[in-house]
Each structure stands twice: as structure tokens, then as C-alpha cells.
């Protein structure tokens, strides 16, 4: 038979063996923080971009791109004579943007007033017959006169 001391020793060993996993897992169940760790309390923060001046080069690029892609209101009867004009064809560039190019045949008896040379600004009247569109009359227009007309039209509206 075991002595009382041996019995208590066995009980303690069993108790320690049962409590050991609980003691090892207890820190995992209750999180704790280190008091020496730095605190991260930024409060009201401001973006770094607010402290630096704006990038003017990037703003200029964006503005140029917006102007390039912006819709332009071109005239319907005023064009610039293009360099692709020949004896039978008249190449017309839209005015003032010069973005669009149109080619029309010349009528047999085309009336020209002023100079209809390459690069000149002209007012054109068309003759439409049986699905063909021909240039019937070309009249040179001074760009300064067009700008004066535009300012008068804006003043009236």
C-alpha cells in the first residue's frame, strides 16, 4: 500500500499534467500589449499632396489634352482651300479648326471672286444635282472680317 505522501504526489502530478496545457494556452486566449510599443494615434491627418505645390506641368498637359479633344464649332460655308486641290477637284479644310477635309468636284462654270489659291479662306456655295455635289461659286473672305462678324453676332445674342 502507498503512503499518504506518495498518494498526494501522484495527485499533484496528475493535476500538473492536466493544468499544463491550460497554462500554456492561457496567454493565447487573453491578448496583451507591450507597454513599450510605440502608439500609433495619427489623429487628424492631412495628405502629403496638400503640403507640396501642384505639378504645373501635369496640369498644363491635362489642359492641352482637353483643348485638343474639345468639340469645335466650325462654319458650314466657310473653308480654307487645301493643297490637295487640282484642276478638277477642290479640297476644302474646315474653318477655323482645319480638322476636317472635304473634296468636291468643280462645276463646269465655277465663279471665283478674289483669290482661291492654297491657304486662302473662302466662302463656298454648292450646286446639288442628281446626288452629285459640285462647287458652284468661290468667294475669298478676309479672316479679320469674319472675326468682326462673329463679335457683332455675339453682341446681338
Describe this structure in words.
By secondary structure, this protein is of the alpha+beta class. The chain is 34% helix and 26% strand. It contains three helices and five strands. The protein has helices at residues 4-29, 56-69, 143-156, and strands at residues 78-81, 89-94, 101-113, 121-129, 132-140. Strands 1-2-3-5-4 form a five-stranded mixed β-barrel. A hairpin with a 6-residue loop joins strand 2 and strand 3 (101-113). The longest helix has 26 residues, at 4-29. It is rod-shaped. It starts with a helix and ends with a helix. The model has no long low-confidence stretch (mean pLDDT 79).
Task: Give a quick summary of the entry.
The chain has 157 residues and is of the alpha+beta class. It has helices at residues 4-29, 56-69, 143-156; strands at residues 78-81, 89-94, 101-113, 121-129, 132-140.
The largest sheet has its strands arranged as 1-2-3-5-4
Sequence stretches where pLDDT stays below 50 over 5 or more residues: none
Please tell me how large the radius of gyration is: 44 Å
> What percentage of residues falls in helices of 4 or more residues?
25-40%
Summing up helix and strand content along with how strands pair, one would put the structural category as alpha+beta
Number of strands: 5
Name the overall outline.
Answer: rod-shaped
Q: Counting H and I runs of at least 4 residues, what is the number of helices? A: 3
Helix-strand string: HHEEEEEH
Distance between the termini: 121 Å
> In what range is the share of β-strand residues?
25-35%
Mean pLDDT: 79
Largest sheet: 5 strands, mixed, barrel
Amino acid at each position: 500500500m502507498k503512503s499518504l505522501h506518495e498518494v498526494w504526489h501522484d495527485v499533484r502530478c496528475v493535476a500538473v499534467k492536466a493544468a499544463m496545457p491550460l497554462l500554456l494556452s492561457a496567454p493565447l486566449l487573453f491578448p496583451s500589449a507591450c507597454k513599450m510599443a510605440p502608439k500609433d494615434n495619427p489623429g487628424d491627418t492631412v495628405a502629403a499632396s496638400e503640403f507640396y505645390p501642384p505639378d504645373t506641368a501635369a496640369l498644363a498637359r491635362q489642359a492641352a489634352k482637353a483643348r485638343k479633344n474639345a468639340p469645335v464649332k466650325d462654319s458650314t460655308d466657310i473653308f480654307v482651300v487645301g493643297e490637295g486641290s487640282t484642276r478638277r477637284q477642290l479640297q476644302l479644310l474646315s474653318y477655323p479648326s482645319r480638322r476636317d477635309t472635304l473634296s468636291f468636284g468643280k462645276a463646269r462654270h465655277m465663279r471665283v471672286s478674289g483669290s482661291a489659291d492654297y491657304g486662302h479662306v473662302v466662302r463656298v456655295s454648292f450646286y446639288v444635282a442628281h446626288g452629285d455635289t459640285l462647287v458652284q461659286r468661290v468667294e475669298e473672305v478676309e479672316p479679320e472680317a469674319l472675326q468682326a462678324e462673329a463679335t457683332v453676332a455675339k453682341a446681338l445674342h
